[in-house]
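#onboarding

Welcome to the new folks! Below is a worked example of what a typical request in this channel looks like: someone posts a single protein sequence, and someone else replies with the predicted structure as tokens. Don't worry about understanding the tokens yet, we'll cover that in week two.

Example request:
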Amino acid sequence: MISFLGKCTQNLIKCFKYLFTGQLRFSSVIEQAVSLSYDSLPIALIIVFIAAAVITIQVAKQFLMSGAEAYIGGTIAIVLIREIAPGFVALAVGARAGTAISAEIANMQVTEQVDAIKTLKVDPVGYYFTPRVVATAITIPMVVLIAELIGILGGLFVANVTINLHPQRYLYSVWAWMHTRDIYISLFKASVFGALVSLVCATQGYETRGGAKEVGISTTQAAILSTVYMLVADFLINLVFYIAK
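Example response:
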């Protein structure tokens, strides 16, 4: 994994070079944004909505028994914004779009399309990686922002149905507990996770050698590695912003 991390770092540097030398086409970024983020929006919102609903079901009765039902909204908002929304959205994008990135690039590698583009004196890493990394880094925070809103509303609905909590009390708790800083950190996490998923999956696909069997293996490895690196990044970001502040 350390060796693979080194390859990811090298590829990220090449992406920066490709980006800052003005070779990146805006149309490529838009195309990848639609394919990777917009098409993943429905499944991401469904996952976050269900997660918020389940958490609300789990905590609502206990809060009601202790007389703290007025804090349900704030609890759901904090959990969603700090962890659930950025993490679950990134996992959804990784499962749907990240594996597609790996399979696409791996297929190009084993069919020698990558070698063909090298003969045109075009950096394949910059050409294939940069639009995907930039697109996910910019658009995944947008998906997360929508998911946070949907999750909070999902918690409100479930709290109202299960323990008859008035929406005004729920929303008052949300506004009282939620801080702008948490939203900024959440969006920063989403940007890092999005770029990381694209970079890791693209690198795994690029390192594929062999035939169709290896493409399938590479896709599975991409899903595993992107999840592991995302969780490590999540730990480090939490350590920096919430422990070492």
